[in-house]
């Protein structure tokens, strides 16, 4: 729990990318790569430059048993915007953003590999009976003393992919606390979608000092 608090307190910054060797596999025509910070560690985010690269881990799986691994609708909840990779990238490379990227998966998955700048709020935290811990997290996310969310941060939530229900479940739990739907965004493609595009990931234990 202490780790979550420290992660929420820390600010995420992005800086302009200095001149580098030519990049042929760009993020978009006007963006080769960018830098962001993951718990104070500077991370260069770009796509893998090997055109022959293939996924070779759990994210190559196409057919998981349903239930529980069913395909989820585009909309996680009424009023919650669903976004793609470009919108996510624009959010995490903006140094003045009031947006946090939330990895809703269990801690073990987060520690194994995640998207740069993501902080971990496991969906199970808000499905437990630990109301005290939940309230502390919500205060760090901007909930006022009277329970209002006027200064709440915008949250982008993701989990493993379109077959994963962890981020939709966390979104619904946050809404039940009164978190404004217009300050919640759902990255539906999740970690599988991020990896499919060959974008940079971080292995959390490598960033520990």
Q: Tell me which oligomeric state these chains represent.
A: single chain
Task: Tell me roughly what share of residues is in helical segments.
Answer: 10-25%
Helix- and strand-based class? alpha/beta
Shape summary: globular
CATH superfamily placement: Rhodanese-like domain
Task: Estimate nothing, just give the exact number of structural domains.
Answer: 1
Low-confidence stretches: 9-19
Termini gap: 19 Å
CATH class: Alpha Beta
Tally of DSSP β-strands: 8
Instruction: Give the mean pLDDT.
Output: 90
Largest sheet, in brief, is: 5 strands, parallel
Produce the secondary structure layout.
Blueprint: H1 2-9, E1 14-15, E2 34-38, E3 41-45, E4 81-83, H2 85-92, E5 99-103, H3 107-112, E6 119-120, H4 131-140, E7 154-158, H5 166-176, E8 184-187, H6 190-196
Parallel strand pairs: 4-8, 5-6, 5-7, 7-8
Antiparallel strand pairs: 1-2, 2-3
């Amino acid at each position: 729990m202490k780790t979550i608090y420290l992660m929420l307190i820390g600010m995420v910054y992005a800086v302009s990318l200095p001149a580098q060797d030519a990049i042929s596999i760009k993020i978009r025509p006007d963006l080769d790569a960018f830098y962001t910070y993951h718990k104070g560690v500077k991370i260069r985010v770009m796509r893998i430059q090997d055109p022959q690269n293939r996924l070779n881990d759990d994210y190559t799986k196409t057919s998981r048993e349903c239930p529980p691994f069913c395909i989820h609708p585009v909309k996680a909840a009424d009023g919650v915007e669903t976004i793609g990779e470009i919108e996510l990238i624009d959010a995490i490379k903006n140094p003045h953003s009031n947006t946090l990227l939330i990895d809703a998966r269990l801690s073990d998955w987060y520690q194994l590999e995640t998207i740069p700048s993501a902080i971990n709020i496991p969906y199970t935290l808000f499905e437990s009976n630990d109301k005290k811990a939940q309230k502390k997290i919500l205060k760090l996310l901007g909930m006022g003393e009277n329970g209002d969310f006027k200064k709440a941060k915008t949250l982008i939530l993701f989990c493993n992919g379109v077959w994963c229900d962890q981020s939709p479940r966390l979104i619904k739990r946050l809404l039940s606390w009164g978190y404004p739907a217009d300050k919640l965004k759902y990255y539906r493609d999740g970690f599988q979608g991020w990896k499919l595009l060959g974008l940079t990931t971080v292995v959390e234990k490598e960033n520990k000092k």
